[in-house]
Design a protein that fits this description.
17% strand, alpha/beta, 444 residues, 15 strands
């Protein structure tokens, strides 16, 4: 069967069956490169997580360009094995203008607010794209990323590495087998944030000589440099990061999302420690409501961060670990401790683990799964169009509820959500969180 027909069949199949398709098998990507041909890689963001992402890229291709706003980071990366011939840039737009025709694939490992501007530009130029989690900074960006990836038929993958692990896929398959019965309730929690949140606005400070601040700000509203934004604590600020929810839910919500196709919630509501709409709160508890979808009944999901956790009674008396996911059905429960469902699964309520089948990733390596897709194999599971785009939309919806809950300990406004139109039907005040405006010079 031709690849193009396979893709058409895939789109019809996923529309009917949902996420279960990813547990059982997969789509073949559009053929783009010979399996023996070297992939010309450009890496945007080469410090922090970008250090390992760019190193992974060097294992599977030739690094032709590296881009970072910090000259020290950029110079350090250029000395790594396999990076010696890479051209150095501080601005990804200049990199694409100069080298666009000589790049096959791009990794994006920057602060959240820059993801979409870089990745969409790359995909519109026909480049395959790997992007760190969360896929985007806003709901609208996530929708655009998925649409562009689908239109351009490029191989994509989000960096939520647990998606490629057998343990996570096995847990999803167990739930899909019906072993828990009808699932009505999901609880997910994390030990994040491990960076400052709920703080006063940071005081202006001189820009370090190695930092290109204009390029760091990118599409976000301009503000002066302050100690604490670069290189790590940006996650706690609304203009740059997505808080504890955005940082970790692409990992910890991943398993129940895969198992239950947790797309398009109809409402979300939060309680927080309070925040000033510049920095995220120190903690939040967020409740999502999902309607039935023909494959499962309606489901409620509760997210906890900042030290909040579900009560031990929900885990049949067990004290919850620092992070994990609990799925509750009318026959039993599945508890997956850890960030990635990577620890031994625990079935509660007297049920036994069924034998299940699921699609395995090459070497349980999410980066290698993306490379396989570039070379014409199955699409990576966490591809933008069919998986990580919708996952990111579900997760970032929670931050609309957090925005609407700025007062300490008070339950915030319940946001009613029209997923098709990306519209909070009863809360026009969150539109700026759904569709933040890009600064001049940046576009989707």
């Amino acid at each position: 069967m031709a690849r193009r027909n396979s893709r058409r069949q895939f789109l019809q199949t996923t529309a009917a069956t949902g996420i279960g398709f990813w547990v059982a098998g997969g789509l073949q990507a559009e053929e783009s490169k010979s399996p023996n041909q070297r992939i010309r890689m450009a890496c945007v963001g080469v410090g922090g997580k970008g250090s390992s992402d760019s190193s992974d890229a060097a294992k599977h291709g030739d690094i032709v360009a590296i881009c970072d706003i910090d000259d020290k980071t950029l110079d350090g990366a250029s000395k790594k094995e396999g990076f010696g011939k890479a051209k150095k840039y501080n601005d990804f737009r200049k990199m694409f203008d100069e080298l666009g025709g000589g790049i096959d694939a791009v990794t994006v490992s920057t602060p959240d607010h820059n993801h979409a501007a870089i990745a969409v530009m790359a995909m519109r130029m026909g480049k395959h794209c790997f992007c760190q989690k969360p896929l985007t900074h806003s709901l609208h960006e996530a929708r655009v990323m998925a649409e562009v990836a689908r239109e351009k038929k490029v191989a994509t993958q989000m960096g939520n590495q647990g998606t490629a692990n057998d343990s996570l896929r096995r847990a999803a398959a167990i739930i899909q087998s019906g072993a828990l019965g009808s699932v009505k309730e999901v609880h997910v929690w994390t030990n994040r944030p491990i960076w400052p949140q709920g703080e006063d606005k940071l005081p202006e400070a001189p820009v370090p000589p190695q930092v290109h601040w204009e390029q760091w700000i990118g599409p976000a509203p301009y503000r002066p440099y302050a100690v604490g934004y670069h290189p790590f604590a940006w996650r706690g600020f609304w203009d740059f990061g997505t808080g504890a929810l955005g940082d970790m839910a692409c990992h910890t919500v991943n398993m129940p999302f895969m198992a239950l196709n947790l797309r398009d919630p109809t409402s979300v509501q939060a309680q927080t420690s309070g925040h000033n709409k510049d920095s995220y709160p120190k903690w939040s508890v967020i409740k999502f409501e999902f309607p039935s979808n023909g494959k499962r009944s309606a489901v409620n999901m509760t997210w906890y961060d900042g030290g909040k956790k579900p009560g031990a009674e929900l885990l049949d008396g067990k004290q919850p670990e620092a992070s994990g996911a609990l799925v509750i059905g009318d026959k039993g429960k599945l508890y997956a401790p850890g960030d990635y469902a990577e620890k031994p699964l625990q079935l509660l309520g007297g049920i036994s683990e069924p034998k299940v089948e699921f699609r395995r990733a090459p070497d349980q390596d999410h980066f290698k799964e993306w490379i396989t897709a570039i070379k014409g194999g199955d699409a990576a599971t966490s591809n933008f169009a069919e998986y990580s785009g919708p996952l990111t939309e579900t997760i970032l919806l929670g931050n609309l509820a957090v925005w609407a809950a700025p007062s300490k300990d008070e339950i915030g406004k319940k946001i009613e959500w029209d997923a098709k139109n990306l519209k909070a039907t009863n809360a026009p005040e969150v539109e700026l969180v759904i569709r933040p405006k890009f600064r001049e010079g940046y576009t989707l």
